[in-house]
Design goal:
The chain has 2 domains: 139 residues, NAD(P)-binding Rossmann-like Domain (Rossmann fold, 3-Layer(aba) Sandwich), CATH 3.40.50; 161 residues, Lactate dehydrogenase/glycoside hydrolase, family 4, C-terminal (L-2-Hydroxyisocaproate Dehydrogenase, Chain A, domain 2), CATH 3.90.110. The longest helix has 18 residues. It is 40% helix and 19% strand. The protein is globular. Strand 13 and strand 14 form a beta hairpin.
Length: 319
Amino acid sequence: MTDHKVSRVALIGTGFVGSSYAFALMNQGLVEELIMIDVNKEKAIGDVMDLNHGKVFAPNPTDIRYGEYENCANVDLVVICAGANQKPGETRLDLVDKNLKIFKNIVENVMASGFDGIFLVATNPVDILTYATWRYSGLPKERVIGSGTILDTARFRFLLGDYFKVAPKNVHAYIVGEHGDSELPVYSSADIAGIPVLKMIEKEQYQKEHLDEIFINVRDAAYKIIEGKGATYYGIAMGLVRITRAILQNENSVLTVSAHLDGQYGEEQVYIGVPAIINRSGIREIVELELDKDEQQKFKESARVLKKILAPHFEEIKL
């Protein structure tokens, strides 16, 4: 009889996103062990206590405890939600310098523990910080994943489903590119239950202009939420749990994450949001959508935006 493989996750950063991820993870009963790490020890211990008090209502008795970096040695997945938050009026890219310093310290401490699993990065600007995590860790690119445009894609599917009066699960459409202002919708391959969206809008009750409005609402959603309640955390937390499930359950699911491109989409030396097949080894394969000419140009521009920010910090980046 073979030993049961225990699924272990270490969460670094127990702010709004981190604590929401821990709550969603516990409620879905995905892991046996969850270690919560934060520079604010009291906050992390408080979260651990609060979550444990709700364990009687959870589907599985997840072992949730406070930990330090050395406890990352045997975990399968390290999820990073730590870093400076986006303030009202601030773009995700305004956070670069602050968070690169924080991340260098975090990743070096995790690697010093002997960690040899998968990194999942959620902190913004996520594409930049995922690239930094890959460089600082020395791990294979397949084992460093960013949350990328998973939430943008979810927002996109929700709004398209709302517009066409169809459940979001029956909408197949992607937002790709930077998780930020230069992202783009891939309408050329979007479909509702197999019917292309561009075919759907030929019906008289729908209009192309409405699709443009839907994308603008997707792109600017975070700004509206931050304006309303100070931060976004429920949606991204559930997206992180979805990626966690795909990894730990070896699903081979296609999710839009921040992945390292090595010639795909004509780009290299950049982490950017694209559909990818996710399983127990991390990113198994990047899915190359057939972008139309306009989408190709916008994607190229999005990659250029990210490389321009990376270049002063990483000498291998060529513009």
